[in-house]
TrEMBL record:
Record keywords: FAD, Flavoprotein, Oxidoreductase
Pfam families xref list: Acyl-CoA_dh_1
Cited InterPro entries: AcylCo_DH-like_C, AcylCo_DH/oxidase_C, AcylCoA_DH/ox_N_sf, AcylCoA_DH/oxidase_NM_dom_sf
Family: Belongs to the acyl-CoA dehydrogenase family.
Gene3D superfamilies: Acyl-CoA dehydrogenase/oxidase, N-terminal domain, Butyryl-CoA Dehydrogenase, subunit A, domain 3
Cofactor: FAD
Domain Acyl-CoA dehydrogenase/oxidase C-terminal: 194-325
Protein name: Acyl-CoA dehydrogenase family protein
Length: 332
């Protein structure tokens, strides 16, 4: 495995970053939260640029770069749910123009008239209220269901840009044609890795904002960034972000190469991202002083996206337990 970006990957990262700098500035995110601005134009940019076509496992590192950069700008589109949750569960149902998400729990399937009847309610489904299709994991397999067949209600989330929904399946009939061949466990590895990458991007943005602030904020006739205590906190944030980032890309590499360590790597990435967001959240708000607690400060969007990510697909403590279990069961 190569642990450094090659020239093409560096060019890809630069291209994605420049596109998002233009199409998803902080003003767009704030406009969505404050004024209900529409995120659909940004979604169309993602599809037009071909980012929603990165569904092959061999493209995982390129997809990881996009997910990290979208996390950095607090992506308001359903890209994360579509590419890290729906796509791995729905091979053969690809449509780059349509969004999707996954339902992992809460829904059962029972035989009915040569097909199945899906019933139940799934809670906290990422983008469940605005996805075009849902990949539903049941005991009988994974089924792709049009969003028009279910009832979805958005629920409040810590991150005001994030869409979470309660999705109800009122006896949805599906056929063999809607069942996929996906492996739900493998798909979960990609979902966990995608969430870790998003959190890393958000934490990196918080660190960048802190560094910009401490360079210009002055006390005692000197930038506060020149004070050793401030430097120590910023250095701790940098180390935490780089550690989490390295583990997230290692997890992406294991998926790209179908490495059997991908389950362990995904948990390591999510645990590191969870620990990173806790430190970044604490230090970033403190280094901004009273400004860090105000609604006018855009720092809130980065730290809220990272904090919300910790609450989904298992927190750091849960994934550390999974890592310990994996290590006990494997001769390392």
């Amino acid at each position: 495995m190569l642990f450094e970006f090659d020239a093409e990957q560096r060019l890809w990262q630069d291209t994605v970053r420049k596109a998002l700098l233009k199409e998803c500035p902080p003003a767009l995110v704030r406009g969505i939260v404050d004024d209900g601005a529409d995120a659909a134009p940004l979604w169309r940019v993602c599809t037009d640029l071909g980012w929603t076509e990165l569904t092959d496992p061999a493209d995982m590192v390129e997809l990881a770069i996009v997910l990290e950069e979208l996390g950095r700008v607090t992506d308001p589109t359903p890209f994360l749910a579509t590419m890290s949750r729906f796509a791995p569960l729905a091979p053969g149902f690809d449509d780059p123009r349509q969004s999707g998400t996954a339902v992992h729990t809460g829904v059962t399937a029972r035989p009915a008239d040569g097909g199945w009847l899906l019933e139940g309610t799934a809670r906290h489904v990422l983008d469940g209220d605005r996805a075009d299709r849902l990949a539903v994991v049941t005991g009988a397999g994974v089924f792709v269901v049009p969003a028009t067949e279910v009832t979805a209600v958005r629920v409040a989330a810590f991150d005001p840009v994030l869409h979470l929904a309660e999705v109800t399946f009122p006896g949805v009939r599906v056929t063999e044609w809607s069942r996929t061949t996906a492996d739900p466990e493998r798909a979960r590895h990609l979902a966990v890795t995608g969430m870790a990458l998003t959190m890393v991007g958000a934490c990196r943005r918080a660190l960048e904002m802190v560094l910009d602030h401490v360079r210009v904020r002055r006390q005692f006739d000197a930038p506060i960034g020149s004070f050793q205590a401030v430097q120590h906190k910023a250095a701790d944030m940098h180390v935490a972000v780089e550690r989490a980032r390295a583990l997230a890309y290692f997890a992406a590499l294991t998926i790209a190469e179908n490495d059997p360590r991908r389950r362990l790597a995904a948990s390591m990435a999510k645990a590191a991202a969870g620990e990173c967001q806790a430190l970044v959240f604490r230090n970033a708000v403190q280094l901004f002083g009273a400004m860090g607690h105000t609604w006018e400060n855009d720092l809130q969007f980065a730290v809220k996206r990272a904090k919300a990510g910790e609450l989904m697909l298992g927190g750091a403590a849960e994934h550390r337990a999974l890592i310990a279990e994996e290590c006990r069961a494997t001769d390392l």
